[in-house]
Each structure stands twice: as structure tokens, then as C-alpha cells.
Automatic annotation (TrEMBL):
This is Low temperature requirement protein LtrA. It comes from Kribbella kalugense. Pfam families: LtrA. Keywords: Membrane, Transmembrane, Transmembrane helix. The lineage of its organism: Bacteria, Bacillati, Actinomycetota, Actinomycetes, Propionibacteriales. It comes from the Bacteria. The chain crosses the membrane at residues 21-43, 55-76, 88-108, 120-139, 151-173, 209-229, 241-259, 279-299, 311-332, 357-378.
Length: 392
């Protein structure tokens, strides 16, 4: 039985990394909903930037904004796998983090349009300060992980002060400061976990990553529906738009199949492997979000509402797909696959990258993705021992 204090709080002790039946809670699923909003806004702004031929700046702003979205989500996810209690204070602080995500989402458009980071930084700081409170609370009952929780709390707080001060510098300098302090954010877990490793539940954490992937792929399905909606209003482009919608569904389904083919929990059996898994997912997640923006650019290309050439528009679709496939192959597939799969998957990604140079690029992209899936069906994952997290 869990002990509860007079204030109806449960001591925030480290969770058992071997806890049977550990799955995502309803609070975690609720938490994810606000990220649907943030990802949708970021993808929409990337779509507009690419269609207006602001390719380099658009990708740069998207990379920065998506980092804040991904990092806030990932930090809460790893904290929750270690210390979730689901009492009233934990819920309140989680909902406070959600409010910060909504503020961040509201500030994404000013970042792309006016290069104004004020609202986004405020939202980000709200999220991170709530996370500081969570870590401080966890430190009271963290046992051997106490030092790690204190480093997390102190490090996050210090970095947020600098984020706020960074608003005082010109926009041209701010973007370089973002890179520096993004590196600081990434370094903090490495430092903290070497002072007292927090426990993680392999099945729970990889389920959470899978759920976030589904959110991102959902944006692509929305883009597929938008192609049909556009076709209803543009009869001259009816055939190409319907074809794009169908092909988008095929490719999105293939991306889902590829992502969930390997047993992800076997890839985070040590601190180093868990950091690799967590950090490299930035590219997988960002690519999945950018894929939906690329579909919208393709719609613009078909309906003649973009300044991009057909080849350039095709690249806005194929580059994210290739990054997604190569990313998940590197993170989880290659360690669980035979030689055939380890040849076909990266080769398929490279062929997808070459598609824009062919007259019917996106159709062949769908074919290549389907061939990858067919290979995965014929060659199931190699059976390996799941192992257990190496703590300390």
C-alpha cells in the first residue's frame, strides 16, 4: 500500500524499473494532447516558410522551435517513468507544464514571421520551472538518486534564467545563443545521471515514445485529408490531389510499420544507450513533423500556390521520410535485424532521397516504402534478450 500524508500527497520515491504491467497513465496521455497543438502549429509555419521559398530560414526556425517542444516533452517523460505519483500536486504541476506548452505554441508564429521569441521563451520557461518543482519534490525521497535530482533542479533553474536574459540581446545574436544553451540543456542529463542514476522502465519509456510518434504521424494523415478537401474545391487538379492523398496514407502507414517493427525496449539497457535512444529521436520526431509540412507543400505545388519548383517541392517530402527511416534504423532496427534488413532499410531511404529526380517521384517513394515493409514482414526481428536497465 502507498503511504499518503495528511496533505493527501504520496512520497515521490523512485519507481521500480521492473514493475509489471507499467503502461502510460491517463495523465500522460492528457499531457500529450497539448503537444498535438504545438506540433501542428510548428508544421504549419514550416509549410508556409517552405512554400514561400524561405527554405534555409524556415528549416532553421523549425529546428529551434521543435527542439523546445521535444525537449519539454522528453524531460517530463523520463521524469514520469522514474517518479510519477499521480497525486493532486503532481497533477497540478503537470497541468502547469501543459499551460506552458500552449503559450509556447502561441509564440511559434511570431518566431517564424517576426523573429520574436518572447512568447515562446515565456512558455518554455513556465514548462521548465514546473519541472524544477517536480525534481525538488522528488529529491526529498529519491534515495541514491537524490544527488541527480538536485542537479536536475539546479541546472534547469539556472538555464532558465539565462534563457530570459537572452531575450535582451538582438535577434541575430539570439539564434546563436539558442544553440549554446540547447547544448547546455542536452548536457544536463549526462551530468546528473552520472551523479546518481534515476531508474527508468524500458517498456514504459518506449511506449511513451511510440505514442508521441503516433501524434506526429497523425499530422500526416491530416495532410492527406487536406489533399482530398482541396480536390473537392479544385476540380482541375482532382486526379493529382487524390493520388497524393492515397500515396500519403501508404507512406504514413509504412512509416508506422517501420517504427514499430523492432522491440524498442531492448535498445535502452544502459545509460549510454538510453541517451542515444532519447537524443536521436529528435531527428525522427522532427522529420515526422516536417513530413506533414511537406505534404502541404506538395498540395500547394499541385494547385500552383508555391514559389518552389516541382523538384524542390518533392524534396520537402522525401527528405523528412529518408531522415525518419534512417533515424529509426540507426536507433532500434539495426540491432534487432538480420543482414538483409540492414541493407534494405537504409538503401530504401537513399532511394527515397533520389526520387525527386524522377518524373513521378512521390509514387516511387510509396513503392520503395512498401518494399521496405515487405522485407520487414519476411524477415522478423532477431530474438534478443531484453536485458534490464543498468543503474548506477
Amino acid at each position: 500500500m502507498t503511504t499518503m500524508t495528511r496533505s493527501r500527497l504520496i512520497p515521490m520515491r523512485p519507481r521500480d524499473p521492473h514493475e509489471p504491467g507499467r503502461v502510460a497513465s491517463s495523465l500522460e496521455l492528457f499531457f500529450d494532447l497539448v503537444f498535438v497543438v504545438a506540433v501542428s502549429v510548428a508544421a504549419s509555419q514550416l509549410h508556409h516558410a517552405l512554400s514561400e521559398k524561405h527554405i534555409v530560414s524556415g528549416i532553421g526556425w523549425y529546428a529551434m522551435v521543435f527542439f523546445t517542444i521535444w525537449w519539454a516533452w522528453m524531460n517530463f517523460t523520463w521524469f514520469a517513468t522514474s517518479f510519477a505519483t499521480d497525486d493532486w500536486l503532481y497533477r497540478v504541476l503537470t497541468i502547469l507544464q501543459m499551460s506552458g506548452v500552449l503559450v509556447l505554441a502561441a509564440g511559434i508564429e511570431p518566431v517564424f514571421v517576426d523573429h520574436d521569441f518572447t512568447v515562446s521563451v515565456i512558455g518554455y520557461v513556465v514548462m521548465r520551472i514546473a519541472m524544477v518543482a517536480q525534481w525538488l519534490r522528488a529529491s526529498r525521497s529519491a534515495g541514491s538518486a537524490r544527488r541527480a535530482t538536485q542537479i536536475y533542479a539546479g541546472g534547469i533553474a539556472a538555464i532558465q534564467v539565462v534563457w530570459v536574459l537572452l531575450l535582451l540581446v538582438p535577434a541575430g545574436i539570439f539564434k546563436y545563443g539558442v544553440v549554446v544553451f540547447a547544448i547546455a540543456e542536452l548536457a544536463l542529463p549526462v551530468v546528473a545521471e552520472r551523479r546518481g542514476t534515476t531508474p527508468w522502465h524500458p517498456h514504459h519509456i518506449t511506449e511513451r515514445y511510440g505514442l508521441f510518434t503516433l501524434i506526429l504521424l497523425g499530422e500526416s494523415l491530416l495532410a492527406s485529408a487536406n489533399a482530398i478537401i482541396e480536390a473537392v474545391h479544385d476540380h482541375e487538379s482532382l486526379g493529382p490531389l487524390i493520388s497524393l492523398s492515397v500515396l500519403t496514407l501508404v507512406v504514413t502507414a509504412a512509416m508506422w510499420w517501420i517504427y514499430f517493427w523492432p522491440p524498442h525496449h531492448t535498445t535502452i539497457t544502459s545509460l549510454a544507450r538510453s541517451l542515444r535512444y532519447g537524443y536521436l529521436h529528435y531527428f525522427v520526431f522532427a522529420a515526422a513533423g516536417a513530413f506533414s509540412a511537406g505534404i502541404e507543400v506538395e498540395i500547394d505545388s499541385i494547385t500552383h500556390h508555391t514559389e518552389l519548383s516541382e523538384v524542390a517541392a518533392s524534396y520537402t517530402v522525401t527528405v523528412p521520410i529518408a531522415i525518419f527511416v534512417l533515424g529509426i534504423w540507426w536507433i532500434a532496427i539495426r540491432d534487432n535485424a538480420d543482414r538483409t534488413v540492414n541493407i534494405v532499410v537504409p538503401l530504401g531511404a537513399v532511394l527515397v532521397l533520389l526520387d525527386p529526380l524522377i518524373p513521378i517521384p512521390f509514387a516511387l517513394t510509396a513503392v520503395f516504402m512498401a518494399l521496405i515493409v515487405a522485407t520487414l514482414v519476411v524477415h522478423p526481428p532477431v530474438q534478443r534478450s531484453a536485458g534490464v536497465p543498468e543503474l548506477g
